[in-house]
Amino acid sequence: MIVFYRIPFCSFSCARTSVDSSNLNSMGLTAAKFGVLAAAFAGVASAQTTLHTRSTLVVVPTLVQTQSKELVFTLTADDFTLTDDGVPQKVTLEEESKRSLSLVVLVQTGGDARGQFPSYEKLETMLVSLLGAAPNEASIVNFDSRPEGASPFTSDIAQWRDAINHPDVGDKGAAIFDSVAYALELLKDRPAGNRRAILLISQEHDAGSKTSMKEIVRDLGETNTAIYSVTFSAEKTAARQAFKDPAHLNPPLHVGDGDYQAYFNLSEPLRLILGAMQKNTSAEVATLSGGEWSSFDNAGELAEDLGVLTNHVRNSYVLSFYPTSADPGLHTIKVRLTHHPEMIVSARGTYWASGP
Known about the structure:
This protein has helices spanning about 125-130, 160-165, 175-190, 215-225, 235-245, 270-275, 280-290, 300-315; strands at about 5, 20-25, 50-55, 60-65, 80-85, 85-90, 90-95, 100-110, 135-145, 145-150, 195-205, 225-230, 255, 260, 290-295, 315-320, 330-335, 345, 350-355. It is an alpha/beta fold.
């Protein structure tokens, strides 16, 4: 029997409390998506990234590509120049293959996620391929208006095939920030030398979280965790699902003196417009962590996007340095190639240093 831990809900910035066990299938563990990032969970972020850290070591995931977007993976530490607030730093190029990976896969099952369940049908196979061999490990958490369950960390996720590929439908919520906060708590308990990463499979917008973005930024820095987000449009998914649902699921229309059954929900176009005006919070979280994000609309696009992301992660560089400045607050990082200015460099842009 596969046992998951029931999560007592709180703001998730608080410490985890004791939990009850339940069966994986009863919790509808929706396994997650193509467990992107396996070997190098070095993140690539072209946008600015702000992290808060209590450690003196600053880790800077970096991706290098040619002008034609071909990956470059033959560089050494001497090829990189890194500055912290304009001051050159001594850079070390870490060997990620020597560090085990601890990965939490967050899969949305609530809200409009059910319309994407067909895209998850091969998810277990993708996760197995991505994670690789032990001692790499993963925990899978499904969520709706709150995180509902966490599997124990393990290298053998094939045992969860049915629950991963065919999750139960959750409620109407999509508490992305709360779920990320919970995943960060899980990762804090993993061995200190492990790489830490979160794969987030969800809609673009948070719905119902109690955790603030400020708390997420702080915790990301404290755990040196990269988030990789693969998102779907809740509005498009819901509109498509409305055409598939039986007519009785949609409210009747009142026209003149009579009621007529609607064969699709006429409120969806308005929701589509309003949703497009909101921020893509999943992408924002990934960017803040120094990770990467992509989007999908069907199983084919999901597989393609995760394939690209996996390739990026496996061929990224992980630079690190000990800052020469002890000044607390926001620091700006710039990474460039000393001898190859024509190449494209994508890296974490900032970090946050705590005071004494």
